[in-house]
């Protein structure tokens, strides 16, 4: 077999495939050779070697490693595909089915677990919304994609990576080195100026917000693993430094704020705050902001601090509702999303349809200099509002329920566990999810494959811990 219990061979394999992925990306980005030819060649090479794998977990971790170096390629029908991530994910499902038919030993999986039930209900509602969609073809693709992410990133991960699940973050972080180096070289030519940060991470990430958000998600894992002995500490330190550089030079205010929120949760857990304590704090803050909203809003309307290279000014510009086009456009998208919800509150307009339909709900009073009528500039800039517009109130409530259950169950298990490594794994998952949910207030990243593998993978980790701990307590 190509793979034995030899880690050096694994590293050679990962480096070779990583190099192939980088070369493929380079040729595609510069248009030197037809991308489809290279895509097919690359996938055939991986497909051949994948069947030599002795363990499916290595195949899944290969997917995690290659996720950050994936990029979109156009396919028939005007659709796009994240390559090599999504084709490899489909291939992994096929390999799993073949292995399962050959008496492959599966892991414990509780279909009755509340988190699993909520995720399945979410998929069912997505299907119902798809049936009632204004743009059926678009919604069918989104429904198929959501199913692929759930089965591949949640179920398959939990079934194949049966031990040492922290490797998901480890290999993903290693894979991030390639786009970080590529982006830093491109950005460095322009002195890392803020006005060049928006699209410099292409072709790996569509814009700087995706780049910063995904880097922020895995920072907690590497920060929590700096104290390990041996050579691992040097590797973790290098990756952590690279990720911090990525977040800083992305100039993504959402990424910075999400890490501040994650650190606040970290401090709360270290102070032994339980779910009820955190809820009381959040409810108290919400009530305080609601009572004083008019005063704050008047102040925000007169804040003229614009985002720039200065970190302090850049963070302050988050509240600029006077002349910050990005903030004002976000409000425009939120207003459009709510208007769409008012028109179709139950089923919404269909999964994936917001960007193609929101123009009908724009009005001059909220439009900005960066507004568009072309339907080519993304989503509602809010996970909840995007779901309201596309799938109605039920979908938004399901998202909130899934978020609360994942975080609350993780917090409970963190306090209950007596194993340091288990606590560290839970904490890395919780803090990563926190960065995602905070981002969800201002952006929509759940439909991005690189984010989906981290979000579903983190929830799968929390599920595994919950199942194992519950069985020990029984």
Automatic annotation (TrEMBL):
The chain crosses the membrane at residues 12-29, 35-53, 60-79, 85-102, 114-131, 143-161, 168-189, 209-226, 233-249, 255-271, 278-297, 393-413, 425-442, 448-465. It is a multi-pass membrane protein. It comes from the Bacteria. This is O-antigen ligase-related domain-containing protein. The keyword Metal-binding does not apply. It is found in: Membrane. Residues 239-400 form the O-antigen ligase-related domain. Keywords: Membrane, Transmembrane, Transmembrane helix. One of its GO terms (cellular component) is membrane. InterPro entries: O-antigen_ligase-rel_domated (IPR007016), WaaL-like (IPR051533).
């Amino acid at each position: 077999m190509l793979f034995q219990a030899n880690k050096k061979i694994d590293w050679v394999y990962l480096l070779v495939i990583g190099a192939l992925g980088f070369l493929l990306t380079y040729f595609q980005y510069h248009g030197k050779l037809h991308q489809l030819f290279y895509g097919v060649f690359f996938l055939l090479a991986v497909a051949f070697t994948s069947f030599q794998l002795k363990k499916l977990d290595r195949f899944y971790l290969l997917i995690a490693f290659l996720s950050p170096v994936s990029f979109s390629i156009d396919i028939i029908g005007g659709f796009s595909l994240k390559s090599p991530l999504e084709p490899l994910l489909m291939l992994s499902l096929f390999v799993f089915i073949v292995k399962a038919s050959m008496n492959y030993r599966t892991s414990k999986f509780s279909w009755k677990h509340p988190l699993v039930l909520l995720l399945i209900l979410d998929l069912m509602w997505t299907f119902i919304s798809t049936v009632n969609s204004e743009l059926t073809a678009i919604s069918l693709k989104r429904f198929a994609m959501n199913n692929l992410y759930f089965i591949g990133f949640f179920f398959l991960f939990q079934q194949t990576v049966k031990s040492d699940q922290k490797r998901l973050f480890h290999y993903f972080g290693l894979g991030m080195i390639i786009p970080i180096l590529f982006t830093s070289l491109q950005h460095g030519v322009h002195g890392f100026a803020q006005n060049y940060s928006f699209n410099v991470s292409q072709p790996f990430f569509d814009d700087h917000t995706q780049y910063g958000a995904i880097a922020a998600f895995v920072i907690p894992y590497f920060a929590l693993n700096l104290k390990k002995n041996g050579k691992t500490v040097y590797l973790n330190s290098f990756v952590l430094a690279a990720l911090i550089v990525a977040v800083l030079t992305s100039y993504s205010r959402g990424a910075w704020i999400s890490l501040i929120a994650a650190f606040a949760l970290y401090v709360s857990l270290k102070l032994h705050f339980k779910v009820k304590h955190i809820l009381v704090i959040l409810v108290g803050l919400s009530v305080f902001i609601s009572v004083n909203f008019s005063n704050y809003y008047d102040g925000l309307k007169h804040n003229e601090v614009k985002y720039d290279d200065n970190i302090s000014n850049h963070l302050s510009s988050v509240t600029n509702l006077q002349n910050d086009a990005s903030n004002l456009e976000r409000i425009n998208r939120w207003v459009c999303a709510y208007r769409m919800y008012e028109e179709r509150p139950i089923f919404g307009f269909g999964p994936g349809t917001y960007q193609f339909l929101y123009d009908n709900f724009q009005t001059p009073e909220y439009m900005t200099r960066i507004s568009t009528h072309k339907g080519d500039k993304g989503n509602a800039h809010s996970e909840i509002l995007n779901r309201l517009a596309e799938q109605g109130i039920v979908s938004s409530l399901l998202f909130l329920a899934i978020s609360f259950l994942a975080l609350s169950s993780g917090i409970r298990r963190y306090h209950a566990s007596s194993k340091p490594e288990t606590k560290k794994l839970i904490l890395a998952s919780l803090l990563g999810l926190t960065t995602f949910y905070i981002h969800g207030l201002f952006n929509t990243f759940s439909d991005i494959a690189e984010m989906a593998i981290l979000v579903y993978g983190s929830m799968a980790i929390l599920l595994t811990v919950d199942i194992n701990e519950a069985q020990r307590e029984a």
